[in-house]
Design a protein that fits this description.
Shape of chain A: globular
Number of helices of chain A: 5
Oligomer: homodimer
Number of domains of chain A: 1
CATH class of chain A: Alpha Beta
Strand content of chain A: 15-25%
Order of helices and strands of chain A: EEHEEEHEEEEHEHEH
Distance between the termini of chain A: 41 Å
CATH superfamily of chain A: Zn-dependent exopeptidases
Helix content of chain A: 25-40%
Chain lengths: ~250, ~250
């Protein structure tokens, strides 16, 4: 199977922030035959992060940032999970079952890992290493969205800022969060839930400052709403970046 | 410039230990014109880890282990260093100066990073991910050698076992170290000296057990000596592995 390469935008940018959108796409390539889901399920939040790519593009333009995003639905392979995490190819996601993921052989796990996970993260790694070698001191910020209602319960938080071992960038973003947004650290979930794989893989080994942003998807459901959110968050990220000291901790 | 790919041996092995030898080679490709070093300097310990590859091969055979090793001298790019570490392309190594590394532009840093560092670590990453997806629960062990005399001072330690954040495998190896060897934890140097990059990049993000082994190079200077050392260390690694529990910490 041909590898599904990462998609790059603004690759020549010189800004320090490197945006990553692992759940940008709801595309399920034909060989997986929709994973047994209905057409509606294939467009639900379990398949992607609605609005996240539009928001990330808006931020990339405003911040002179490179953006790296996924070509394939997280239901085929969740790029923010390691190959040995059950959530990498989830058989169950919130209230949905995913028939095509119900009984995955070790060979199929390896096949999806090689076709989707490895190409994306190796492409991203090339960019991280290139920017480090050029002295651009990248700061990795991943852009996600979350569903306003989860297992039937509404979520009050609007802007979640999640960190892994290095909390510098996350705390700086929280300190500069737009006043109109209900912002919270490590909500609606945290590193303890196994959701910070990209940060662990791409930022921690290099001591690069990093954060994972989660926006409630009802706030970025249309391109215009995503643009308005980018207008709010771009100055927040710029201000946070200014408080992060150069280079390694 | 064509990428310098990692070299694999025993790739079909099913053993849990994945051996890595970042300093296996003293080869300086012609485009770097010997980095301005004499022929003798190009074969000195600053260019590679003498004996490490022979030892690693001996271990790979005895442990049914996959072995991944470097095609290029660490003076072109030290694969156990991140692109922003000065030691990645050292201008000075112990008592030797490296003329070809004296004034490296950002573009040349990026060029070597893309040609040597990224291909090796992405090739290694593919193997780590593949083994995880197959349920083989890899344990990464890097094989190095060190010079018996450093800045004029003899070193007493013979077998150094170095750990990064996860010390499980290193402590287990120390507990089973051959009785005839002067073994020591975190000697002749430690993670604080910035020498554990491969462990941080390839093992820590996945919570894979790992260790870095350093053998004094006068003990493995001939192929026969390296074989004899492999005879001693293989049972030590097997015993250590047996004490490491499956999967994540």
């Amino acid at each position: 199977m041909a590898p599904f390469r990462a998609i790059f935008e603004n690759r020549d940018s010189r800004g320090r922030i490197l945006l990553v959108c692992e759940h940008a796409s709801h595309h399920i390539p034909p060989e997986w035959d929709g994973l047994g889901l209905t057409a509606a399920e294939q467009l639900a939040h379990i398949a992607w992060d609605p609005g996240a790519l539009d928001l990330a593009r808006g931020l990339a333009r405003r911040l002179d940032a490179c953006l790296v995003h996924a070509p394939v639905s997280r239901l085929v392979y969740d790029l923010n999970r390691a190959p040995d995490q059950a959530g990498a190819m989830p058989a169950q996601s919130e209230v949905f079952t995913v028939p095509g993921n119900a009984a995955i052989s070790a060979e199929e796990r390896a096949r999806r890992t090689q076709a989707v996970y490895v190409p994306f993260h190796d492409d991203l790694h090339i960019e991280v290493a290139r920017r480090m070698a050029l002295g651009l001191a990248p700061v990795i910020v991943t852009i996600h969205s979350f569903t306003p209602v989860y297992f039937g319960a509404p979520r009050a938080v609007e802007f979640g800022i999640i960190h892994d071992a290095d909390d510098r960038m996350a705390r700086a973003i929280l300190a500069h969060a737009p006043v109109g947004l209900k912002a919270e650290l490590n909500a609606p979930y945290s590193a303890a839930d196994g959701v910070t794989h990209t940060l662990r893989l791409q930022a921690n080994p290099y001591r690069l400052a990093n954060a994972m942003l989660e926006i409630r998807n009802d706030l970025i459901v249309t391109p215009a709403a995503a643009e308005a959110m980018a207008d709010q968050l771009a100055p927040c990220l710029s201000a946070a970046l200014a408080t992060i000291t150069e280079g390694a901790v």
